[in-house]
Design goal:
Layout (H helix, E strand, L loop, with lengths): L1 H56 L14 H22 L9 H5 L17 H9 L4 H10 L9 H15 L10 H11 L15 H9 L6 E6 L4 H10 L4 E6 L16 H4 L2 E5 H6 L4 H26 L5 H42 L1 E7 L4 H8 L3 E9 L4 H8 L2
Parallel strand pairs: 1-2, 1-4, 2-3, 4-5
Helix pairs in contact: 5-6, 12-13, 14-15
Length: 408
């Protein structure tokens, strides 16, 4: 019985110790589980908060975003809003931005408050003119205008580019080189005839000049008789068409009309070779300027006699030999000058006689009259020199003059 009691008491004491250890272990496990649960709850709460923050920043996409019924303007606005929210998310997460800084602000720029007036420009018109006339480079001037424009930064990029291009065109000194042709020269003279000495009358470059050139049918190798009072405009146009081949007889009455416009065409010596001057009175009367040669021969004869007299005085031993030598030198040079002029004039007279003979024998392919003189009288006098099948064109400022030429 004692043993049982001892054993029972020992056994009971051991059982109490084991129960105490088990309770401690259970308490520790419960505390660890509670701590783990608390940590899990805290993580869940943090995740829920983060989700709520992201959900608040980036809402769920709607079906209307990017729909086929959205206009381009609406799509741009939606894109701008998405860019802004994306920047907020990237800023909250601390990551590098996907789009450049300020992109969303640039998307919001509009031209609604843009007015094309002088109120937006801080520079006065006097200051702008002074800078422009002071030799400031166009790019620098335009940049100053953009910097002093209060609405320039609010414009869209396209509007800014358009504004800059417009100012560059306005303040740039530009010019265009045009080829020297009959059309461009006639248009220039027509536009500026009020301030020049070249008076074209009613000879319009856009319709009259092409009609005259088309009706006369002048081309390379043609033989043309021209009487004009347009300062050489038609002569240059015909030489341009002939290309250095053929003959262009420029007729005049009493004195040669000015043909200074021919120099404006920039024709080469070969292209100007067909041009020949022709006295219409000599052509009609059948002479080639013999009177001028007779005058030159008389001057040469007198000079030769005076030179012979001086030489005889020098040979006779005149006392004033120095004065005689000076006079001999002068008259000898004068004689040589007369001889050169006479030879040149004789050659011109010979060529003119041959040209007149060819005109009388063969005629000309085209007769063009655009003169200040009576067109009817000129047409009657020159019409016999037109070859069979040739073309003739008559121009006059007044229609009455053409009617008179028509019924003469």
């Amino acid at each position: 019985a004692e043993a049982d009691d001892d054993g029972g008491s020992d056994g009971g004491g051991g059982g109490d110790d084991d129960g105490s250890n088990a309770a401690a272990t259970a308490a520790t496990a419960a505390a660890a589980a509670a701590a783990a649960a608390a940590a899990a709850d805290e993580e869940e709460v943090e995740g829920t908060a983060s989700s709520e923050i992201l959900f608040d920043i980036v809402p769920a996409p709607s079906a209307a975003v990017g729909s086929s019924k959205s206009s381009p303007t609406e799509l741009k606005l939606q894109r701008s809003e998405l860019l802004e929210r994306l920047q907020q998310v990237e800023l909250a997460l601390g990551v590098a931005p996907t789009v450049p800084a300020g992109a969303a602000e640039r998307e919001h720029r509009t031209n609604a408050n843009k007015f094309d007036d002088n109120d937006n420009q801080r520079l006065s018109p006097e200051e702008i003119v002074k800078m422009h006339q002071g030799g400031l480079v166009t790019e620098d001037l335009v940049r100053k205008l953009a910097e002093n424009n209060s609405s320039f930064e609010e414009m869209q990029e396209y509007a800014q580019t358009k504004y800059m291009d417009k100012k560059v065109r306005k303040f740039s000194r530009r010019f265009r080189l045009l080829p020297a042709t009959a059309q461009t020269i006639a248009e220039t003279l027509w536009d500026r005839s009020a301030g020049t000495s070249y008076k074209l009358g009613q000879f319009r470059p856009m319709d009259t000049l092409p009609q005259v050139l088309g009706l006369c049918n002048v081309q390379a190798g043609s033989r043309v008789l021209l009487v004009e009072s347009l300062w050489g405009l038609l002569a240059g146009a015909l030489l341009e068409r002939m290309g250095g081949l053929g003959e262009l007889f420029l007729g005049y009455v009493n004195q040669e009309d000015g043909v200074s416009l021919v120099d404006f065409f920039g024709l080469s010596a070969a292209q100007r070779a067909p041009l020949r001057r022709l006295d219409l009175e000599q052509l009609v009367e059948g002479r080639a300027g013999d009177e001028f040669v007779a005058v030159m021969e008389g001057k040469l004869r007198l000079t030769t006699q005076q030179l012979a007299l001086l030489q005889s005085r020098r040979a006779a031993g005149d006392q004033d030999r120095k004065a005689l030598d000076d006079q001999l030198f002068v008259f000898d040079r004068l004689k040589r000058s007369h001889e050169r002029r006479l030879d040149k004039r004789r050659e011109e007279m010979r060529q003119r006689a041959e040209e007149m003979e060819r005109i009388r024998r063969r005629g000309v392919d085209a007769l063009v009259i655009a003169s200040k003189y009576d067109p009817g009288a000129l047409l009657l006098a020159l019409f016999p020199y037109l070859a069979p099948g040739g073309q003739f064109v008559v121009y006059a400022d007044e229609p009455e003059m053409l009617l008179d030429a028509r019924y003469k």
